[in-house]
Write a structure and sequence with these properties.
Radius of gyration of chain A: 22 Å
Number of strands of chain A: 0
Number of helices of chain A: 7
Radius of gyration of chain B: 64 Å
Shape of chain B: elongated
Number of domains of chain A: 1
Strand order of the largest sheet of chain B: 1-4-3-2-6-5-7
Shape of chain A: globular
Structural class of chain B: alpha/beta
Strand content of chain A: under 5%
Helix content of chain A: over 70%
Order of helices and strands of chain B: HEEEEEEEHHHHH
Number of strands of chain B: 7
Helix content of chain B: 55-70%
Largest sheet of chain A: none
Oligomer: heterodimer
Largest sheet of chain B: 7 strands, mixed, barrel
């Protein structure tokens, strides 16, 4: 009898957890939609909201832009060297540039930028929002008005999203330049061939997938950690903080986006 | 913690400017990237279309290059299957590169061993009329991998033959064994002769025969020297023969003189014979005349006897 009760209790716990998981994701989706609407609203970029947005953009992006660009440049240099040397040793040097572009620009750099911004900006922003909520500065999420979201939450979401986009774009451009210089040197003689390789890699489908993937990563990094801390209900059974759970959710979404992009690109 | 911090207007303006710069940087980079990609895809470049027809376009992908002399001059824009089952490779050729393609240009589709596929154009006569836009040409397919099955079969046969050749009971192994034993015999005391004769006794006989032949040759050599002395020496046969030849020449000269005289005599004799022949002819006529006279005399005698009264009758007594 006791064993039967225990079994039912496990099943009930599992069902409750699954339900809460679904509810949590649904609330995140709703919150994201609400924030996207706010982001498209002109009133979000006026007065104090604009100042707050500018402050967060500068605070979240400027300090990491240089370092991240430098870091990705060094990593890109190493990867380019490995790919080029390996390709030459196997007599496949004409595929080296294409492989570099695919590996770095298409795959690694957007993912690295998303992870970097998630850890460097999105997680602190989520902590700040959680602290505001704990202090009562933010009302209960269900009752949170558009004004509070515009002033406190939207700037953080937009800055996280913007940061991912800017870091990814700058790093991709720098990596492309480094790849050209590494392969052809300081000459414009290889520009036509390099451009042709770029054009061959970035077919319309690949370009679309790349754009959607980068946008998806940026939105996920901006939205999910903050939405998690806002909508996570206190759960005494869980020993992790809501920020960490938000990070796990974010990584899961990043993984999904990356897998979807890979499937779209290579199947 | 919140955004209700007190910032001076100047600081706020500075932040706004920096944020605007960041946004502008992003917009600039994105716009530049998009423009570069459009340029790389050839959107801003006028181009003409070329359609290559092939039975099999395996390995051809959208975006791959058409090369001329190793330089990419076109890009595959699409691949489609025509109603008759022919594959159509649609290629965009930029106008500035289209001058390399002529009416007589040949297009090939080659597949490498590692799966790489190449579309190549060859223009042998660049003075031919240029290839018009929208032209359709048959592509020649050269498939390196098609040779693989034949190559594999031949390689398998080769390996089988090699295996047979190198097996322990193969002819080659036997031959090598024989060569080894022959080599051992050559290294032996009798050397190659021992190998040729198969036993030492015969080889020894040959060596002895060679020795005797050498001795014989030495003796023949001495004999030849003596014969030389006797034939060509001062007292040899040759000088005497030479003198005899001189004497013979003199005798021949004398004989030639004698023959000349005989020739003259013969001429005279010939003349005499001519005269004699004429005389003989005359004698014939004379003889005929004498015969006629004799017949006349005989007739006359017969007439006389017939008319003579004392004549005895002619009587023939038979024995």
């Amino acid at each position: 009898m006791t064993a039967q009760v225990s079994g039912w209790s496990v099943v009930a716990d599992l069902g409750r957890s699954a339900w809460e998981w679904c509810i949590g994701w649904w609330q995140i989706i709703l919150f994201s939609a609400k924030l996207l609407v706010l982001a498209l609203s002109p009133s979000s970029y006026r007065g104090a909201n604009l100042a707050a947005l500018a402050r967060h953009l500068v605070k979240d992006t400027t300090p990491v832009l240089l370092w991240f660009t430098l870091m990705t440049s060094i990593i890109s240099l190493v990867i380019i060297h490995i790919v080029v040397v390996t390709s030459v040793s196997y007599g496949l040097s004409r595929y080296a540039l294409e492989m570099v572009v695919r590996v770095l620009v298409l795959e690694l750099i957007p993912l690295t930028a998303a992870m970097f911004v998630a850890l460097r900006c999105a997680l602190p922003n989520a902590s700040e929002v959680a602290a505001l909520r704990a202090q009562g500065a933010l009302d209960a999420p269900a009752a949170a008005g558009g004004e509070e979201l515009q002033r406190e939450v939207l700037p953080r979401v937009v800055s996280g999203t913007f940061s991912v986009l800017l870091l990814a774009t700058v790093s991709c451009v720098v990596a492309a330049l480094i790849a050209y210089l590494w392969v052809h040197g300081f000459t414009v003689g290889g520009f036509a061939g390099y451009t042709r390789t770029f054009g061959r890699v970035f077919s319309p489908a690949v370009s679309l997938i790349f754009t959607l993937k980068t946008l998806g990563l940026a939105l996920a990094v901006g939205l999910i950690p903050i939405a998690s801390v806002l909508y996570d209900r206190p759960n005494p059974r869980l020993r992790t903080s809501s920020e960490l759970r938000g990070l796990v959710r974010l990584f899961a979404v990043i993984l999904l986006i990356e897998v979807a992009a890979l499937v779209g690109n290579y199947t | 913690m919140g955004d209700k911090s007190t910032l001076t207007p100047a600081a706020t303006r500075s932040l706004a400017v920096r944020a605007a710069l960041l946004v502008m940087l992003l917009a600039l980079l994105v716009a530049g990237s998009v423009a570069y990609l459009l340029y790389a895809r050839g959107v801003f470049e006028p181009s003409q279309r070329l359609v290559l027809l092939a039975d099999d376009v395996e390995g051809v992908t959208v975006g791959m290059d058409l090369t001329f002399a190793g330089f990419p001059i076109g890009r595959v824009r699409g691949i489609e299957l025509a109603a008759d089952g022919t594959a159509r490779i649609i290629i965009d050729i930029p106008r500035k590169d289209a001058r390399w393609l002529r009416e007589s240009s040949v297009f090939t589709l080659t597949r490498g061993l590692v799966g790489n596929t190449n579309l190549r154009a060859f223009s042998g006569v660049l003075s031919d009329p240029p290839l018009p836009g929208g032209a359709e040409r048959r592509v020649l397919v050269g498939d390196a991998t098609a040779e693989i099955p034949r190559l594999v079969n031949e390689t398998r046969d080769l390996i089988r033959n090699l295996t047979q050749l190198t097996s322990a009971d193969s002819s080659l192994a036997t031959t090598l064994g024989n060569v080894q034993s022959a080599t051992d015999k050559i290294k032996g005391p009798r050397g190659a002769l021992g190998m040729l004769f198969g036993n030492d006794a015969d080889a020894k006989k040959l060596v002895d025969a060679l020795d005797r032949t050498n001795a014989l040759l030495a003796r023949i050599d001495g004999l030849a020297a003596k014969a030389d002395q006797q034939v060509f020496g001062a007292e040899g046969v040759m000088p005497e023969a030479k003198a005899a030849v001189v004497q013979l020449n003199a005798a021949l000269l004398e004989a030639r003189e004698s023959l000349k005289k005989i020739d003259a005599i013969l001429v005279d004799a010939q003349a005499i014979a001519g005269n004699t022949r004429a005389a003989a002819n005359d004698l014939g006529a004379l003889r005929a005349e004498v015969d006629a006279n004799l017949r006349k005399v005989s007739g006359m005698i017969d007439e006389v006897n017939r008319r003579w009264p004392f004549a005895k009758p002619a009587e023939i007594k038979l024995p």
